[in-house]
Amino acid sequence: MKYVKATNLLPEQLIIEIQKYIQGETIYIPKQKKSYEPWGTRSGSRKTLDDRNASIQQAFKNGQTIAQLAEDYFLSVETIKKIVYKK
């Protein structure tokens, strides 16, 4: 997240109105709900993890042990359990 100087972006009247509530502090203004994208959507990370997890679930169904999956995927046994037992 980068910081933007309000005077370079907002109209003076809006800055005056905001200053009634806060001055000289950093505030976070979230995106509108309609423009929100879930984590990893843009970068493709979510799809990569979903594909990996599907592979782990399939390997478990095919008989691989949790310990072997943990070793193969460089994940903890607990993480593999969460993946394979997820409904």
What is the number of E strands?
0
As a whole number of angstroms, the C-alpha radius of gyration is 23 Å
Total helical segments? 4
- Whole-number mean pLDDT: 92
Shape: rod-shaped
What is the element string, with H for helices and E for strands? HHHH
Largest sheet: none
Report helical residue fraction: 40-55%
Domain module tally? 1
- What gap, in angstroms, lies between the N and C termini? 34 Å
- Derived from helix and strand composition plus strand pairing, the structural class reads mainly alpha
Low-pLDDT segments, ≥5 res:
none
As an assembly, this protein is single chain
Strand residue percentage = under 5%
What does this structure look like?
It is a single chain. This protein is an all-alpha fold and 87 residues long. The chain has one domain (6-84). It is built from four helices and no strands.
List keywords for this structure.
87 residues, mainly alpha, 4 helices, 0% strand
Short description:
It contains 4 helices and no strands.
Write the layout of secondary structure elements.
Blueprint: H1 12-19, H2 45-61, H3 66-73, H4 77-84
Helix pairs in contact: 3-4
